[in-house]
Amino acid sequence: MVTTAVMVAGRKSGVLTKTLDRDAVDWIDDVTGSREAIGDTGTSLVEFGNHLGASAAFALAVPTLRRAAPTLSPVAIGAAYGTALYAVNIAGIAPLLGITEGEIQAGPRKALERWAVHVIQAVITTVVADRLTTGHSS
Predict the structure, then answer these.
(1) CA distance to 13, 111, 119, 120, 132, per residue, from 63 (Å)
(2) 3 state DSSP class of 71
(3) Which among 28, 31, 78, 113 has the fewest CB atoms less than 10 Å away?
(4) Is 119 helix (H, G, I), strand (E, B) or coil?
(5) If we measure between CA atoms, which residue out of 34, 108, 116 comes closest to residue 78?
(6) Average pLDDT, the chain
(7) Cα(127)–Cα(88) distance, rounded to whole angstroms?
C-alpha cells in the first residue's frame, strides 16, 4: 500500500513523473488487453496486487535478514533491500520484459524516482515487519 500511496501522491503533487506503476499498467494492458476487459481501474488493481504480494513476500524474509545481519537497523536492511530490488527488477528485468525503457534511457530523474520509491517501500516494510516479528524498534 505504501508503494502505491507514494506513487499516487507523487504524481498528483507533481513531485514524481510517470511512475513505475503506470508503466506496469500500460505493459499489462499491452500484453493482455486488460483495459478493454476490466478497464484502467481493474488493470491498476492487478498492478496493486503485485505490490502487495511483493511486500508480503519480503516481509516474510525480514526475520531471516535480521538473523543474517543482527546489528543492522531495520532502516539499513530496508534501504539495502530496496536498492537491490531496484537494481535487479527495475534496472535489470523490467527493461528486458519491455515494462520500462531502461534506466539510462529514462534519465537520471526518473531512475532516481524509481530507486527512491523502492527504498521507501522496503524501509517501511522492514520496519513494520521487524516490529511485528521481533519487537525491535527502529
Answers:
(1) 35, 29, 18, 19, 10
(2) coil
(3) 31
(4) helix
(5) 116
(6) 86
(7) 22
